[in-house]
């Protein structure tokens, strides 16, 4: 649970000590960080750069993870080496980080509960990035005031392309899904996954259980497959996925998590799960290259500065 750490370069964080190991003040909290210049990506993006990015987008990112138990995917030695998922809170967690013990039914490690963290402010986000927590994964529900899982507040559909299908193919499916969900009164917004595909988000009023929400997402996937079988797959049969887009409804299970909007991805070079306008999705459906829908941290900071959070606009 220990990892090399990185200081922040801005975004409201003040460096108050020597290089290599520094003490920073974030929202009045003191954090000890180290190795500012350690590269995490092959292009030279450092841990300091990662923290700077997360500090810049904190106002739009934090609302999507606040109150949700957080699963990290960490790369303490950089993305050229295998990363690992971390659900249990790190032993080095400061006392001010909110922690919650939650049941884990069907755990593959025979654990009855896991102690998660929730991250609600900039100081927590800097602490996470300090652990080389590059990817931020959260469920589709939040904790209630008693730290118990509430009903989902959003439905998520993950669009996963099977080569040679790519993110541009996902855009075609996203437009179809948008219309189906609109017919039942759900307003849908889109985001790249920062990897190969797209995610679609629809806000819920909290009246549906996660089982109800998953069933609704599965019905959407099956309807799309019935009507567009040459393009869409609703089952998890990987052998049948070639050239199609798997509409993954399973992310709505109470125990599943999805990459958060605005999260970095642990790829060879930095990319970000980036919210899109529906005009961009329509343009992406006819784009000649999937690179038109790949966004760097620099791109995303500029988009946020100019457009705010497209998922709440």
Shape: globular
Identify the quaternary structure here: single chain
Overall pLDDT level? 91
Task: Tell me the helix content.
Answer: 25-40%
Q: What structural category do the secondary elements indicate? A: alpha+beta
List keywords for this structure.
disordered N terminus, 26% helix, 313 residues, 6-stranded mixed beta sheet, 4-stranded antiparallel beta sheet, alpha+beta
Provide a descriptive summary of the structure in words.
This protein is an alpha+beta fold and 313 residues long. It is 26% helix and 26% strand. The protein has six helices and 19 strands. The chain has helices at 47-65, 122-130, 167-183, 210-227, 278-285, 297-307; strands at residues 13-15, 21-26, 29-34, 71-74, 84-86, 98-103, 113-118, 133-138, 141-143, 149-152, 154-161, 188-192, 198-203, 232-233, 245-248, 258-259, 264-265, 271-272, 275-276. The strands form six sheets. A six-stranded mixed β-sheet has the order 14-15-11-13-12-19. Strands 5-4-8-16 form a four-stranded antiparallel β-sheet. Strand 9 and strand 10 form a beta hairpin. The two termini are 38 Å apart. 43% of the residues are buried.
């Amino acid at each position: 649970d220990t990892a090399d750490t990185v200081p922040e370069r801005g975004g409201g964080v003040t460096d108050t000590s020597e290089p290599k190991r520094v003490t920073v003040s974030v929202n009045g909290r003191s954090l000890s960080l180290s190795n500012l210049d350690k590269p995490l990506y092959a292009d030279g993006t450092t841990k300091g750069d990662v923290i700077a990015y997360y500090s810049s987008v904190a106002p739009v990112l934090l609302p999507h993870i606040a109150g949700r138990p957080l699963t990290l995917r960490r790369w303490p030695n950089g993305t050229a080496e295998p990363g690992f998922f971390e659900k249990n809170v790190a032993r080095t967690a400061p006392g001010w980080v909110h922690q919650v013990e939650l049941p884990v039914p069907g755990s593959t490690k025979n654990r009855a509960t896991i102690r998660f963290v929730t991250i609600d402010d900039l100081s927590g986000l800097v602490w996470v990035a300090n652990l080389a927590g590059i990817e931020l994964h959260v469920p589709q529900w939040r904790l209630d005031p008693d730290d118990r899982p509430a009903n989902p507040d959003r439905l998520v559909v993950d669009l996963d392309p099977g080569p040679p299908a790519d993110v541009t193919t996902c855009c075609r499916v996203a437009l179809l899904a948008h219309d189906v969900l609109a017919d039942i009164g759900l307003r849908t917004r889109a985001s790249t996954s920062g990897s190969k595909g797209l995610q679609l988000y629809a806000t819920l009023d909290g009246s549906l259980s996660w089982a109800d929400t998953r069933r609704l997402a599965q019905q959407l996937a099956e309807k799309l497959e019935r009507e567009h079988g040459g393009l869409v797959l609703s089952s998890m049969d990987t052998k049948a996925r070639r050239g199609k887009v798997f509409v993954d409804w399973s992310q709505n299970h109470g125990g599943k998590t999805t990459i958060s909007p605005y999260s970095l991805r642990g790829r060879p070079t930095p990319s970000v799960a980036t919210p899109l306008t529906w005009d961009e999705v329509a343009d992406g459906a006819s784009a000649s290259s999937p690179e038109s829908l790949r966004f760097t941290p620099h791109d995303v900071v500029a988009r946020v500065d100019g457009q705010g959070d497209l998922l709440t606009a």
